[in-house]
Write a structure and sequence with these properties.
Regulator of G-protein Signalling 4, domain 2; mainly alpha; 2 domains; Regulator of G-protein Signalling 4, domain 1; 70% helix
Length: 130
């Protein structure tokens, strides 16, 4: 469990929140309660994808991420604009560690300006900083 001081830093830094295993778990629980957990799941999947070294594994993961989060009517479709979706699809013709960067940045920005402020006001967060 993080110290209240550590948890307080998350108010100003989604990055710190997402990099802390306890913070990520709390944030995901909160998002689940709001039915928007796919954003954090997508972010985590992209982070994992970027660490993939094998081109074969990378292609497999890219396909899985695309089918789960990007394609229209995907089970956990994230809310990205048509331009970002088109760029991402083009990037997947030859998967590279940066294939999902644009979409991941969009989702990060969405969580930062939308989900994080709500999380900070939530009971989930107030329990952590006590």
């Amino acid at each position: 469990r993080p110290s209240p001081e550590e948890a307080l830093q998350w108010r100003d830094s989604l990055e710190k929140l997402l990099q802390n295993p306890y913070g990520l778990t709390s944030f995901r629980s909160f998002l689940r309660s709001e039915f928007s957990e796919e954003n954090a799941e997508f972010w985590v999947a992209c982070e994992d994808y970027k660490k993939t070294k094998s081109p074969v594994k990378m292609a497999e993961k890219a396909k899985k991420i695309y089918e789960e989060f990007i394609q229209t009517e995907a089970p956990k479709e994230v809310n990205i604009d048509h331009f970002t979706k088109a760029v991402t699809m083009k990037n997947l013709v030859e998967p590279s560690p940066t294939s999902f960067d644009m979409a991941q940045k969009r989702i990060f920005a969405l969580m930062e300006k939308d989900s994080l402020p709500r999380f900070v006001r939530s009971e989930f967060y107030h329990e952590l900083i006590k």
